[in-house]
Amino acid sequence: MTPPGTSAAARALELPARASSPARREWVVFLRRLARRRTALFGLCVVVAVLVLAVAAPWVTSWDPIEQDIPSRLQAPGSVHASGRVHLLGTDHLGRDLLARIVFGARPALLVGFAAVAISGLLGLVLGLVSGYFGGRVDDVFMRLADIQLAFPFILLAIAVIGVLGPSLPVIIVVIGVSSWVVYARVVRSEVLSIREREFVQAAHALGVRDVRILLRHVLPNALTPWLVVATLDMARVIVIESALSFLGLGVQPPTPTWGGMLADGRVYISTAWWLATFPGLAILLTVLGINLFGDGLRDTLDPRLTV
User: Fold this and answer.
1) What letter would DSSP give residue 4?
2) CATH code given to domain 53-62+88-302
């Protein structure tokens, strides 16, 4: 309790500290709950490790992922190059170091994952907020657009768009991002339909607060938690889609290393050089598994109905 002699300025300075302490306690409780989920921590460690390897790729390996060395083609894992350096994971059919290509191949996978999820997540968040809050014809229009979007097979849409615009990293990001907003919009809309009927929203309406302020100040923070969980889990799906498009030759074009493109090259040598397809496949598996485990743990931690 503030002493009677305390000035108004001093009391004003105490208010932000008091207001921020509950927020800090919530973060501490959240981190403690998340730390008790070992699978989520394992997934987070995998994701962080892949991200660090992608960022520090030039320092992780001394091999050039693009430079060809035909005399050293199809060398088994652990083979020694004429220069004395070791190919830890072997070489591919053009003599390129497989470890270097896997490490550098994490860059387009993560870039597409983050960028496409950002586009689809923000688009779905805005449409879900507007649709759920205003309802009526606005809701009908957006939900019918969502139904039309779901009626299109994604792979056919991707092939059509990429066939017209050409395969490139920006085109892949836009195609995946624009075609994946429906899940976010539906999840956010369902939350907003419940939030708009709560007492604090009705009180804000009674006080004459504008709809935009209610959406940004009261509705959005409460609808952000399920959106964050969906975005985390959707990133794994986007990485698999990018790998599938690269496998089909519709993704990032050679010689840029991609995990899907490496799988496509290795399938021809699966009986004679097993490492060409095995190690890129394991990279996709571990990355997607880590994201899924972290997303599941994040969902369970943020859900107030579940206890640890």
Assistant:
1) T
2) 1.10.3720.10
